[in-house]
User: Fold these one by one.
Assistant:
Number 1:
Amino acid sequence: MSLLELDGVHVVHRIRAARLFGHDHVYALTDASLTLAAGQTIGVVGESGCGKSTLAKVIVGLQRPTQGTVRYRGESLWQMTATARASKFGRDVGMIFQDPATALNRRLPIAKIIRDPLDVHREGPPAERADRVRELMSLVGLPDSVADAVPGQLSGGQRQRVAIARALALRPALLVADEPTSALDVSVRAQILNLLVELRERLGLAMVFVSHDIQTVQRMSDHIVTMYLGRIVERAPAAAVPAAARHPYMRALFSATPSLRHAVEPIVLNGPVPSATNPPSGCNFRTRCWKATAECAAELPPLTVLGEHTYRCVHPEL
C-alpha cells in the first residue's frame, strides 16, 4: 500500500475579474496524480507560480481539492471527519514552510514553539513533553541555551532548525518541505540540506521536497516531479536525469543551471508564461516550446509510461 496517493486532483480558485461584473478562475492545480511510498523522497520542481506550493498544501491537508481524491494509507483524506483527519493524518505529517521568520510565532520562546504540537495533541504527560523538546533540539543541532530565546534572537539557519524540530515533534511518517532554504543565506543552505538528508535517513521519513532549484531537488530526491502551469508534465528517477529527461521543459530547467563537470548550452524559452486563468489548449508548454506543432494545441498529450518514468509530450526529447 502507498503511503500517500493523489488521484486526478484539481484546485481552482475563484477570483474577482478585472471587468465590472463576474469572476475569473485560477487553475492552480490540474489533474495531479502522484504516488509516494513509505521512506521515499519526491522532489517537486518548476518556475514560480507553477503550482508547487499548492501541491504541497494539498498533500498536507491545508488545501482541499476542488476535484479529485487524496488518500493516506489507503483512506480518503476528505471523507474522514475533522477529528479523524487530525488524529490519523495531521499528527503523521509534518511541514516545513519557506520562510522561518514568518512561520514561527515571534513572541513565543523556542521551547514553547517546538512543544506546541505535543500540547495540541496531548502527547504524553508534561514531563515527557519537556524531555521530547530537549531531544528534538539536540536532533536538529540547537543548543540548550536557545530554549528561552524568541525567534528574533536567532539566525535564519537556527530558526529553520526550530521549524524542522517542530515538524518532527509528533514523529511523522511524512515530511513536506516547501522551499526550505530559499529564505536563507547561501552559507547556511548546505547545512540545512545536509540536516534534512541526515534526518530522513535516521528516521526513515518519506519526504516531499519542493524547490525551484532542480540541482538541489536532484540531490535530495529519489524521483523528480516537474510542474508547469499547474500540471505535472514529467516524473523521472532522479538518477536518470538529465540524460533521460523527455519533456522539453525539464531539459530547459537543467540547461539553465551551470555545471562544473560539463559544458551546458542554455535553452532559451521565448515568450511570457501564460496566465493560469486562461491556460493554452492542449499542452500548456506549447506557447514557449521550440518543438511545438499544431498537434500540440489540439489536445492534451497522452501520458507515456516507461516503468517509473512518465511524461506528457508528443515530441519528446531523445
Number 2:
Amino acid sequence: MILIMGVLVFYPIVATFSYSLKKWKLTAPGDIRFIGLKNYLQILGSDDFWYSMQNTLFILVFVVACTTLLGFFIGTFLNIRVRFSGILLALAVLPWALPPFVNGILWRFVFYSGYGFLNKLLTGIGLTEEPVEFLASRWSLLLVVSIVVVWRSVPFMALVCMAGRQSIPTGFYEAARIDGGSRWQIFRRITLPLMLPFLGVGVTSTSVTAINVFDEIVALSGYSDLAKNILMDSYLTTFTFLNFGEGAAMTYIVLFFALILGIFYLRSLAKEVSYE
C-alpha cells in the first residue's frame, strides 16, 4: 500500500510542485529553468485567473446554498416510511450515480436554444416567441452549469441528511411533544442542532464538488472561455497552451482550496454528536 500510494499519489504531488517552480513550455523545450514563485505571481496578477475565480465562486455559492436546502428537505421526506420508500430512494440517488459528463449532455438537450426541451416548452405555452439562448451568455451559462451540479449533488446531501435524521433518538421527539413543543420548536431545538455535524459533511463535500466542476462545463459549452473555472483554466493552460509550469502552479492553487475544504470535511467526520 505504501508503494502504491508513493507512486500514484505522493510522487505526482511532489513532481507537479517542482514543475510549478519552473518555466516549462513544450513550445520551448530548450528553455526549461527554475524561476521560483514567478508562475504563482503571474497567475495571481492575471485577469484571466480572476475571471475564472469569479466563475468558480458563483458556482460554489449557488451549488452549496441550493444543494443544502434541497438536500435537507428531500432527506427529511425520504425519512418518512411509506410503501414505495425504497423506489423513491433509488430514484433520488440516480442523478448521483450517473457520470457527470452524461448529466451535462442530458441537460444540454433541455437548455439548448434550437431543439431544447425548455425552449420548446416556453414557445409552446406562449411565454416567448424566439428561443432563449441559455448557453450563449456568461451568467446564464454559469446558472445552467450550477443547476446541473446541484442536480448531481443533491442525492448525496439528501442521503447524509436522512442518515443524520435517523440517528436522532425518537425519545427526544416524544418527550418534546409531551412537554407541548410545537413543530417549529422541535425542529429548532432538536432536529437542526443534532443534524449540524451531518450537514457539515454534506456542505464540505458539495463545496469540493463545486470547485472541481469540469465535465458539466465541457458537455454544455465545450472548452470555451465563457464559463471556465479555475480547474478548466488549469487544464487549458497545461494541455492547450502547453505551459506545464504555469498549469502546474494553477493546479496547486486549485489543490489549496480543495485542501482547506478537505480539512473541514475531516473535522466534520471526526466530530461526535452529543445527545445529552
Number 3:
Amino acid sequence: MRERMLDGKLFLDNCQGLDGERMAAKKRMAAFNRLSPDDYDQIRAMKAEIFGQETDVFIEQPFYFTYGRNITVGKGTYINYNCNFIDDGKITIGDGVLFGANVTIATVGHPINPRYRKFMYTDAVVIEDNCWIGAGVMINPGVTIGENSVIGSGSVVTRDIPANSVAVGNPCRVVREINADDMRYYYRDRLIDDEELKTVEKTNQTT
C-alpha cells in the first residue's frame, strides 16, 4: 500500500502500519509545537526526527504535517507560522525558499466519482530554489514552481509555474516575468542600495 501511495495509484491508508506511522508523526508534531522557541538543541533534534535527516531549515511554530518523512527541504529555507504540509506524497523544497504564514501544500486527492471517493491518490509537489510563497497560498497536488518565482498571497496554485515568474490569483496565473526593475527596486519606488545593505548585514552579524 505504501508503494501504491507514493506511485500515485489509488490507495487506502489504515493498514500495513501506515496508521501507526501517522500516529508517530502526530506525536512528533505535537512535541515540536510544544517546544520553547529558544530551546535550539531540542528544536534541531526534533527537526531531524520529523524529516528523517538533519536539515538547515528555520520553522516557526506551529508547523503541521502528515508524515514528515516524505518532505525534503533544502538549505536556508524559512517556514513561517501555521504552515500545513500534507505529505502523503512527496514534497521537495529547494534551497533558500521563503514561506509566508498559513501556506498549505497538498499532495493527496480523491476521485471525483463519489462511488470511489473513499480512495486516495498522490501527486508530488516540487518548489525549486529561491522561491517566495506568500501568506495563505494553497498549492495543489502535482504542481512544480520554478526557481526564483514569487507566488502572491492568497493564491491557489493548480498548475505548474515557470521559473523567474510573478504569479497570483485563484487559479494562480503568471502575471509577468521577474525583470530588470525587480533587480533595482525592492518595493514600488524604493531602490536597492548595495552599500547600505552591506551595513545592514554587518550590523546583523555583530549585535
Number 4:
Amino acid sequence: MTYLEPRQDVPPGGERELPSRADRTTPENPWPLRMLSENLHAYIARCAPTWVEGQIIELNRRARVTYVTLRDVDAEVSVPVTLFANETAHLDRPLETGMRVVAQLKPDFWAKTGRLSMLGRGIRPVGLGDLLERIERLRRALAEEGLFDAGRKLPLPLLPHRVGLVTGRGSDAEKDVVRNASLRWPAVRFEVREVPVQGAGAVRAVTRALQELDAMPEVDVIVIARGGGSFEDLLAFSDESLLRAVAAATTPVVSAIGHENDQPLLDWVADLRASTPTDAGKRIVPDVAEERAGVARARASLDRAVQLFLEREEAGLAAVRSRPALAQPEDMILLREEDVDRWRTRALAAVDSRTLRELDAVRHLRARVRALSPQETLQRGYAVVQDASGAVVTDAATVRAGDPLGVRLATGELGVRAESVSARRPGERAGPG
C-alpha cells in the first residue's frame, strides 16, 4: 500500500486551495468526499423532471411515503421511486403491483449517504382508453404505410416441411398448435422457441425468436401463438418494433393470439390470422384424411375419364368397322378392277384408232411425196439437162451450139451436143425456118 505524504506547503491547521473541477483533482490535491457529494447533489438538482411510463413491480406503503419500483414495459430496466402521501391521495384507485403508470420523475441525490433516488409526482395509471388510443394511432400509421395490404402478404405453403413456433414456455397454446397440427398431418415437424409472451422483455424475446426462425431455410412457416389474457397482457403483440419485424420477415407468419375476440395489431400485419392457437394448428397443414379422400376422388374421376375415353374409342372403331369399305373390302377392289379393265379397254381402242388414222395419214403423205418427187416427174417423160460441169441447165441462153450436154431420163442418161440454141419460151410457137 502506498501512502501519500502530507503537503509540506500547507501549514498544520491551514486551508489549502482545492481544484474547482473534478478533472483537475490529483492524488496530491484531492477533493474532500463532502465536496463530491455536494457537487453531485447540485448537478442532479439541475436535471429537469421527466415524464416516463413504466410498470409497477414492487410496492411498499408507509405512513407518509410510498416506495415503488418501476420497470420498463419492454426492457429489463427498473428504478426505485419515492412517492409522498400528497401524490397518492388524489388517485381514484390505489396503486397495485403490475399496474402500468405514467409519472414525472425528478432525480434526487442524498449527499450524506450518496444514495440516488427518484421523486415521483403526478403519478396516474395508464387507462384502457389511453392504450386503445395509442394502438389506434399506430394502426392508422401502419395502414398508411401499406403494412396491412393484402398484396404484400405471403401465401402459406401447401405442405410445410418444418413449422416454426414462437410461444410461451409450457403453454397451452403450444400444446394446441402441436396437437391439432399433428392430428391433421402426423409427419409435421416443429421448431419451437419458448419465450416470455407478456411483461417486460416479451417484445424483444418474441422478435429475436422470429428473426432466428426466419433465418432458418428449413422453416417454411412461422406461428406466433399465445393463449387468452387481458388487454394489457396482449399489448406486446401490438408493439411497433415487433410488427415491423413481422412485416420484414421473408417466411410466412401466422398470428394466433388469444381468443376469437382478441385482435392485436399483429393479426393485421401477419400473413394469416388464426382466431385461436387451435385454429392455427388446423390451418398451417392440410388434413391427411381429406387429402387421401381427395386423392381417391381424383383417382376415381381419372378412372371414369379413361373408361369413357375407351368406350368412345371402341364405339368409333365399331362404327368404322361397320362401314362397307371395311366390312367387305374386296368389293372396293372389284370395283377398282372393273374401272381399270374399262379404262384399259378404252385406252387400247383409242390407241388402235389413233394408230390407224396415223397410218392413213402416213400413206397419204407418202403418196404426195412420191407424186412431187423428181423421179416421178422423170417417169412422166420429163428429162433433166446438165452442162459439162454437171449444173442443171434451166436457161437456153447459157448454152451455145456444139456444147456437150448430159440428159438424165427416168432410167439412164444420154450424152448429146447442142445443135442449135433458141430463146423460145414454153408455149410459144416456133418461127418459120
